[in-house]
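Protocol step 4 of 5: obtain the predicted structure for the target chain.
Materials: sequence only (see below). No template structures provided, no constraints applied. The aim of this step is simply to have a reference model before the mutagenesis design in step 5. Sequence pasted as it appears in the construct record:
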Amino acid sequence: MLFFLASSFKLETQNTCSAPLSHITSPWLAGLLDWVDGFSTQKAILDMNDLELTILMPCLNEAETLATCIGKAKAFLQRANISGEILISDNGSTDGSQKMAEISGARVVNVTARGYGAALIAGITAAKGRYIIMGDSDDSYDFSALDSYISALRQGYELVMGNRFKGGIAPGAMPPLHRYLGNPVLSGIGRLFFRSPIRDFHCGLRGFNRESIISLGLKTPGMEFASEMVVKATLRGLKITEVPTTLQPDGRSRAPHLRSWRDGWRHLRFLLLFSPTWLFLYPGLFLLIVGLASQLLLFLTHVKIGPVSLGVHSILFSGAAAIVGLQMCFFAVFGKVFAKHQGLIPSSSRFEWLLSRFTMERGLVVGLVLFSVGLVLAFLSVELWAVQDFGPLEPEKMMRLAIPSAGLMIAGSEFMLGSFFLGLLQLGADMSAGSANTEERK
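Step 4 output (structure tokens):
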């Protein structure tokens, strides 16, 4: 009521006086009118930013198709009666794409950092909509048919991925290498590594809740941004779904920006680095178990497979496999601890339980025991050599003792050094957490 009366008085005085309101001498009335001015300005800003949807398109020299894409997006907003905007995140176009976008009614944000991911990160930051639907500006996706995306977003889904394999891929829209090898293999690896429900990791048309995606802290500047969004959303437990979408041949006369093998490797590299379990732990456990089992079997008996006899040389290579496997298991732990402390991947109760049991001191004890056993076997080997007056020895007999001796000393050293390094990683994380708590208390 007070706001209504003050606004009415201010409007009346402005309509009846050509001079500004400086003639008002009452301090409380002047203060009230200043408050009304400030409130009105803030409300206008909020109204301007209170959009439901931003349709975001990354752009690099897309003058041939950009106006068509913007026209379809505008038609969808008008038909669906959605308060929204069309945002072009331009990555340094030199063909006049920026001017064309502005003429077509879109807002343009210029991004100096090069790359598909860099353009989208800047666009997501600049977007004013509560929801964002992003898609390539090459006219391969139909921006006039986004109903399934906005419907899923309104239902509470935080990431809505398009699935081109369910919606339909027009002839010539996707190269056979991508359709039958690249996309299925990389999407399959993503589902296997991260238990993601998404079957088309690289669909360029996707919608999401702006605040939810910003909270993921997406950083990759290149094409692997598409995988990063899905992986991090899955790991953080965001509500995800898929909707069928169509893919048409793009409308450009030039070659696409995508480079099949280079960008495919960047996607695969990201998936591997974000999963220390699959990159290090599972292969390491396989080598460790097979190596130790093979050594034990060859120590107990002579193994012959057809005409092939497995002897002391097989023991040597089995020991090498076991050592490499142990090292990979340590790398898996180091990688998980580092990634967790950097906020790259969330922790798990099982992993935290493992860390609480495997302390630095316990690791040092295990390493010392292994090294000591190996050292005892080494002294035994020297003793046997001394019995022969340090003369020639039977190679196979001595290697059956020397190989496990060396392997145990190496494994013990790995345990001790790895325990110290793990303690160093955890110490750095504890100090960072302590500094953050101190800043919060201030």
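Step 4 remarks: The two ends are 40 Å apart (CA to CA). The chain has two domains: 48-273, 276-435.
Proceed to step 5.
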